[in-house]
Amino acid sequence: MTSRSAPTRLVVDTDVLIDVLRDQPEAVAFLEGTEQPLATSVITVAELHAGVRDGKERRRLDVFVEAFAVLALGPATAQRAGLWRWQYGPRHGTGLAGALIAASAEAVCATLITLNRRPFLMLAEVLVPCARS
What we know:
By secondary structure, this protein is of the alpha/beta class. It has helices spanning about 15-20, 25-35, 40-50, 55-65, 75-90, 95-105, and strands at about 10, 40, 70, 110-115, 125. Strands 3-2-1-4-5 form a five-stranded parallel sheet.
């Protein structure tokens, strides 16, 4: 493990953002209480939009996502994610989307905020802020 300074950015996983959108008090309080810059992955943006209804719900989601820096994927990040999916997927339930989100967080030296630590065992910097809703 390489030494580095503490992450200054938080990358928020899909499950946490879903809880915030559902007004789950613990998830909302966590995000509102953080002073660190917040980001999310383009994969999370896609996952959120995959479950949204047209109209008011979609407009609310679009405004919500604008509050986050959205991390794009480059070739090195994609390669890292593919290797992690191969290495961690079978035993830890790490899907391709999760591996891509993890690689995005690692690429910017950020802490990943998620409700499920297990698929992200490849990361040293993971925080589970509250129980799953």
